[in-house]
Amino acid sequence: MSQSYRNPVIPGDHPDPSIIRVGKQYWATSTTSEWAPIFPLLRSDDLVNWRVAGSIFPSAPAWSRGSYWAPELSEYQGRFFLYYAARNHQGILCVAVATSDNMEHPFHDHGPLICQEDGSIDPVTAIDEHGRRCLIWKEDGNSRHLHTPIWAQPLSPDGTKLTGIRTQLITNDAPWEGPVVEGPFIVKRDGFFYLFYAGAGCCGINCDYKVGVARAKNLLGPWQKNPGNPIVSSNDSWRCPGHGSIVADPSGREFFLYHSYPQVGFFFVGREAMLDEIVWDQDGWPHVNRGSGPSVSAASPLGAPQKPQPIIDDFDCATLSLNWQWSWRNPPIVSVRGDGNLHLRPRKQESNDMLGGVLAQVVPSPHYRASVDLVTSSLTGDMTAGLSGYGQPHDAIGIAYKQNAVFVFRRRDNKTLETARAAIPSAKILHLKIEVKQGNDYQFWFAADDGPWRELQERVAGADLPPWDLAVRAALICGGLPNKDAVFRHFRLENLNRE
What we know:
Elements: E1 4-6, E2 18-22, E3 25-29, E4 35-36, E5 38-44, E6 51-57, E7 69-76, E8 79-87, E9 93-100, E10 108-114, E11 120-127, E12 133-139, E13 150-154, E14 167-170, E15 181-189, E16 192-199, E17 210-216, E18 224-225, E19 238-248, E20 254-262, H1 266-269, E21 272-280, E22 286-288, E23 297-299, E24 311-313, E25 326-327, E26 333-336, E27 342-345, E28 357-362, E29 368-375, E30 384-392, E31 395-402, E32 405-412, E33 415-423, E34 429-437, E35 441-448, E36 454-461, E37 473-479, E38 486-495
Antiparallel strand pairs: 1-23, 2-3, 3-5, 4-25, 5-6, 7-8, 8-9, 9-10, 11-12, 12-13, 13-14, 15-16, 16-17, 17-18, 19-20, 20-21, 21-22, 24-38, 26-27, 27-38, 28-37, 29-34, 29-38, 30-31, 30-37, 31-32, 32-33, 34-35, 35-36
């Protein structure tokens, strides 16, 4: 019996995914925007089961100030490259590069290659018909209501600088593309270069993203857009697909790893990483899922069964699990000692804020359950700690403990409102639980010591939590006093879609 998999293959918020094959292993990364570690590295043996194996940057490169977008992995002459976009200290979006001699070794950042006034994003490389390696990227003209050309320019031999003349490949001149073409990726097949790209609006509630393709005999053109564009569009299950890269398995079959929002849960869950095979027709044009949009399920590429697992962290290792994320702007102070406890502390300048220390996980679906145990004796005075559906510093929802009471809170536009409260004067361990349906329908429970679960508030809507290009995280939170730790135990994050 053949094995099948279900999309997404990398659940949760993983926009702009990039993939390469190194021997028998596959490596992927994705946009992190304002979260750290910057650009996770995920590894798979079979394309359908992925685990976090590290990251490109544990902290922000010195030249950069956020918007860590569109990382693209490549291998050239035995060396590994990560081209990516980020803002410089003047706020301009730049394309930069980092390199490594091994995917399991640290990457060294070389800084920006180009910072156009309108912004430079979505880099990828290709080797032209003369053997020259070129950088391809998008000029972010839509940020100024201008056209968005996709450019190509030769690279220096070491891949860290641009040389020669810049050439425009395509721009947004087809009605379906709207104000944007972006997210290029190039493959060569049967004498043609094929440029896969995304068009229209990528993100948020009004997105209308789609995938198109163009081809040319020479890398610098002229390019012919597919008369059948777009080749991937929304369907009943998935919304706004686009921006990905292509990998070939050992037999030569090609697979497209790209992102899409789920129709259920939408931008609360984020842009999840999807996998579909590329099939070529007799006219030499590619198709994905017979033109029906992203697949719900398909045959497993290498025959492996998909084995989704809950995230369970009992903090019994001396290093922090690689699944955790934090704000690169305000990293909390975190320590684990292998004794079953996680110690979380805000940076001093954020200590009075109950969201001053945030340690987060990508949520796995629109329907999920997060739970954690809080050691109440670790909190003194005005300290607060708890469990949150976290959008950004001024938009969050959650359940927390302070001064012998547990309460539900809602922060909107930086104003915090308490919506329910219960006294628990003698608890040593407080069990906290959040269940979420449809991505934004929250329910909150607590249990004191070995007592039964009690629902604190029936339902709370979190409709306006996510920022434009990000998704809600499940987060441990703390704040209230400087130089004091909140102590957590037994974190669980479960995908209720698969129950």
